[in-house]
Amino acid sequence: MLDRCITDVSLSKAEYQRLVPELQARLFDLEQMLLEARIPTIFVFEGWAGTAKARTIATLTRRLDPRGFRVYPITPPRTYEQQYPWLYRFWLKIPSYGQMTFFDRSWYRELLAAYTTDGDQDRWRTRCEDAVVFERQLADDGAFILKFWLHITKKQQARRFKKLLSDPLQSWRVTDEDRWQHRHYKRVYRVVEEMLVRTDTAFAPWQIVPAADKYYARLYILQTIVGALESRLGITAIDRGASIDDSGEALRRYNLSIRIPVLGGATNTDTVRPSPSAEEAGHQLTTTPMSNGSVVVTVPVVSPTYAASPLQRVDLSLRLDDETYHRELKRLQAKLYLLGLQVYHQKRPVVIVFEGWDAAGKGGAIQRLTAELDPRAYIVHAIAAPTGDDKARHYLYRFWRRLPPRGQFAVFDRSWYGRVLVERVEGFARPEEWRRAYAEINQFERQLVDFGTIIAKFWLHISPEEQLRRFEQRQNVPYKAWKLTDEDWRNREKWPAYLAAVDEMLLRTSTPFAPWTIVEAEDKKFARIKVLRTAVDVLESELGVVKLE
Amino acid sequence: MLDRCITDVSLSKAEYQRLVPELQARLFDLEQMLLEARIPTIFVFEGWAGTAKARTIATLTRRLDPRGFRVYPITPPRTYEQQYPWLYRFWLKIPSYGQMTFFDRSWYRELLAAYTTDGDQDRWRTRCEDAVVFERQLADDGAFILKFWLHITKKQQARRFKKLLSDPLQSWRVTDEDRWQHRHYKRVYRVVEEMLVRTDTAFAPWQIVPAADKYYARLYILQTIVGALESRLGITAIDRGASIDDSGEALRRYNLSIRIPVLGGATNTDTVRPSPSAEEAGHQLTTTPMSNGSVVVTVPVVSPTYAASPLQRVDLSLRLDDETYHRELKRLQAKLYLLGLQVYHQKRPVVIVFEGWDAAGKGGAIQRLTAELDPRAYIVHAIAAPTGDDKARHYLYRFWRRLPPRGQFAVFDRSWYGRVLVERVEGFARPEEWRRAYAEINQFERQLVDFGTIIAKFWLHISPEEQLRRFEQRQNVPYKAWKLTDEDWRNREKWPAYLAAVDEMLLRTSTPFAPWTIVEAEDKKFARIKVLRTAVDVLESELGVVKLE
């Protein structure tokens, strides 16, 4: 999940100061409403040392009624706490019905310690399960849980430490434990990644927060919490609209849209996301007619946050010249042929997933991938809307039954990810269904990997402009026209909604055992070579083949 | 769970034949309704070899429309099935929406094989998780799942094999695998027990079926399935009452009450259970006024099934003479004192739970248990209705915070089991809440045991007659009168409902790591000595103390 986090976003102080008071006021309102609704809330703040978690929490609590919340700083367990099962001290801190709790570090601190210091795999796994059980029991009892991981790179952490150490009044903040973490950043990173995947659930989702810029991080968290709570309390844009008056103040207060895609259990489906064109419009108001006839007024609040979308950062200028393309294609296809034989001999199943925008070039890439493989060794599944048996069963059924046997390739031209893409955006799956699906898909892929399956997943990315060019080209070339359907045009209309869905998919399902590869597909030649090269790399590494150039 | 199964119940063939056709007809009706409601159902049949699972399934399917169901006999995986992840072949067999599936053996066959043959603990644990994930994904998608374990003792299995082997037409039924299982009955038993606990969930509960008598087993299963499905479809006793006419036939068809407590996700709260006094009344009709003014007519259908309640089998005639009592009391208390020191030295926490009928003698037993312990070493928690902080949080909070530290005893006079006893019977917890609680409690106790906690749990059992005697005695003795409240009398009215709740509690929460001890408490002296002796045994075995008589 961390590999999908864009770490260099920032927000100006002026912008931050302009926006925060309104969000704090809304959080104050929510505090009262939660109390009345008797909903206990738990906000967990974890992250790298040097991400100023305590001061982030202060931003949240500053305007709250102190009777309504508790802040718990979590240190390593004290002697008396070690006399009890490890979750004891956290059970003692669960909120009463209606209370808000903020954990500055949490049970995850102990989970990480269990791994990085003990190195006891079995104990670590048991504790991950304990944590999930703990959260599930509280969530089943009505608790609302959000977990934040404040993320910075090793370089950013170094800069942060340097700054703190240079100030005699601040240097004490950098502890021995922090230095240890910095020295072992890579190792801790891998453990964190595994921990996030094991404990990311629909009832207690993780939010990864780019935390190098404090203003950005705090606003992101404030917006996420406010949006998620309003959603939980059933405050829709419409309800907020009821308070609209002409003063403009209430308008801003109640109609700020949550521009950051609020993730997991937190997305408010009634929240209107600005379209990319609103991007340029700056802070101009946009109005969106709702299906029930009312109008939602949207103020895009944080210009730079949109940039936290990993997809927005994809370098679409990457190109490949003809000569390199043909040379590389030949070389990689030859390798794939040999790797295909190894797959057969080693009896490993291979699953290759292609997802991407309409007309992003999935078909062409698949064709190049399989061209030199033994035709008996692979099968390509083109996945459209389910029909027949597939439609009458659990959505994973159609993929289970299309799994490759040992020694074979199965290439999926679209896949189970439809659940969190088209089914989410078009409303074919209910919110609780697609939110549950991230964990279901990770469990599914983990089972495949446990069996020995080699998995590669590609997202083919193009710009909306390039898509339009390709659509028009298809329309104009008679033998390509069949490829273009009304559905393609309809999907194109919903680009922003798809963008949010893709971003969340990439974040929540990029796991250590089945990571995503984003393919810059504006240039088809570049895309095809990247796909083939990645496939070759994955296969070589999984099959233990000696690399010969 | 298996230790709570009464294995020597039986039903006459005549009774069986009288009752089955009506239940089969209801199941046929349900098949149509499930199809219409598009609810897929999965019935898993596992159990010891020689329990005639296939013929049991035949009883269920005989009158069904063959288009509506599938029966899957599960053998060890074939060569081609071994080319896929282990759950692949079961995913291929999931029912379509509205279809019924009957699995004659299932994924649990492979789970057991993974343990008993591989002995690979890690793989076994992963597969248990895989099975739970599989069932959870299907249940989340709307599937209805019930799992039956057909249980016989080793002796009963021997008799069964002998009978089959003596018949040349039947002897082929006893396979080498069956013989292996019989030889290793004890070892398999332990694995089954662990498997049942790990995979018993609110969304896919296990039902333990006494299977020595085929008529009893089949009727039990038929009743359980019909009752559970009617409950799932929201068919209450009242709905069925709508079809009552004077012919008596429809009356029997629609008003047979499910006398066997239907367990787990399956209990129909509208089903009226006959009171113990109805026991003697034989097949006489009983009428019960419902809160909404209508009357439910109940035909007690299966006389002997009630005997499957382990509580009904408790030998309440057990007595202890004064002399033995005083000698044993002294001896055991002296031992407990020494064991208490060991607990302190070995730094093990100890949790002792007392549950039982009102006036069963919990207080007296606790007093004898703690009398000679160092007063600093133990604390007794009397658990009544929650108040204050405890009332405003998850029900387990009040017990987490009362856990003993290392080296101390905590004795609970009533406990977290209130969730599945008084809260269930009095309606303080919703059905989904107390059904979920069995797994929550097992998870809780497993976490305690993982930490090193020693747990003993006692159910003090008396007859309703003895309770009445004690109530009256309390009423008449001035210094005891305070012990008797209106609530005690109210609870007494609900004896049958409590009986069902206690039976299910004992079944679902008697785990290998925290088993229940049922104490015959009709005679206080006998009860106290049994409690002390059990406590001594548990402590000696857990602390590794050499036993010196």
Automatic annotation (TrEMBL), chains A, B:
Region entry Disordered, spans: 269-289
Matches recorded under Pfam families: PPK2
Gene3D superfamilies found in the cross-reference section: P-loop containing nucleotide triphosphate hydrolases (3.40.50.300)
Residues covered by the Polyphosphate kinase-2-related domain: 11-231, 320-541
Transmembrane intervals: none
Name recorded for this polypeptide: Polyphosphate kinase-2-related domain-containing protein
Naturally occurring in which organism (per UniProt): Chloroflexus aggregans (strain MD-66 / DSM 9485)
Lineage of the organism: Bacteria, Bacillati, Chloroflexota, Chloroflexia, Chloroflexales
